[in-house]
Specification:
Length: 302
């Protein structure tokens, strides 16, 4: 299996990016990812003034997917996420939801033993996820630092981006130009203090293409749901975007009038917060697959 090393990374998703590796549809490959600090934090007493802030959120890639053309959808199946045996979490004054109450910088390096992270003696089962994953944005959309989530993906920090899930991205550039990084061994929805359990990983992926169909926001498919992952300047903006796209999928996939799709969404669709600490907020609208199958959702896309 091809292994794409974590030594070549990007810090910005742009329309024009030079790819570093090529993969084919249906090929299985491994991507080595760095933690969001590029492994700079190895010591709980390290002064944060020593941190090189230019090396935050590295994403391995870009990876060129053969045959991907603008106007297609790139499908990315996450087969497995293997993480190292320790991760970093931290808090800073003025960071996160309760930044006004956080008076000191604190770093914790947590060991992972038998699939559990240990925090002050509490054993927390890990559930590894990918924080940053995306493709080249449109030319009009400009440049996106890897710290920011948007229509191309990026720092979506969504707990459902984990092994067994399949992601769908709009392709805006030849080869799609996939890049990923910032795995978390665990994270709660919201990521309220600004970090998950930040950790290097080895992510096994398989990619495929859906030709001549496009979507506005990335989708995350789990066993039971297909989720619209939308971001905005506020949680309210993200909720509006995710809901609007999800209702359109219900309308077009089921051939309903818009008002019926809207009511059906209100009856069956969950809005979940992904994260509220990045430069844009991310929310997912979770459509149960027993209400709208993935096949019907894709069929409804013009
Ligand atoms: Ca992140
Ligand atoms: Ca992170």
């Amino acid at each position: 299996m091809k292994v794409i090393k974590g030594d070549k990374v990007i810090y910005k998703f742009t329309h024009e990016m030079e790819y570093r590796d090529k993969v084919k549809p249906n090929e299985r490959f491994i991507v080595e990812t760095n933690d969001c600090f590029f492994q700079q934090v190895q010591d709980e007493d390290m002064p944060m003034s020593k941190l090189d802030y230019d090396c935050l959120n590295p994403a391995t890639g870009p990876i060129y997917v053969e045959g991907a053309e603008p106007g297609d959808i790139l499908k990315v199946k996450i087969i497995d996420i293997e993480v190292e045996d320790k991760g970093v979490t931290m808090t800073f004054p003025n960071e996160g939801v309760l930044g006004d109450q956080a008076t000191q910088t604190k770093v914790r390096i947590l060991p992972i033993e038998d699939g559990h992270a240990i925090f002050h003696g509490i054993k927390i089962p890990i559930s590894p996820m990918v924080g940053v994953i995306g493709v080249a944005p449109t030319k009009e959309d400009g440049e996106w630092p890897t710290a920011t989530p948007w229509k191309h993906g990026g720092n979506m920090d969504t707990t459902d981006i984990k092994a067994g899930s399949t992601l769908y991205f709009p392709v805006h550039q030849e080869g799609a130009l996939l890049a990923l990084g910032d795995c978390h061994a665990i994270m709660g929805d919201g990521e309220i203090c600004f970090t998950g359990l930040e950790i290097p990983g080895k992510v096994t992926l398989e990619v495929d293409l859906i030709k001549n169909k496009t979507i506005k926001w990335p989708l995350v498919e789990t066993e039971d749901y297909i989720m619209v992952n939308a971001s905005g300047d506020t949680v309210d903006d993200a909720i509006y975007e995710a809901s609007s796209e999800a209702v359109n999928f219900l309308k077009n996939g089921l051939n309903f009038e818009w008002e019926d799709a809207y009511m059906l969404a209100s009856l069956t669709m969950d809005l979940r917060i992904s994260q509220v600490v990045d430069p844009k907020m991310t929310v997912r609208a979770c459509i149960p697959k027993n209400v709208l199958s993935t096949e019907d959702l894709l069929k409804g896309i013009k």
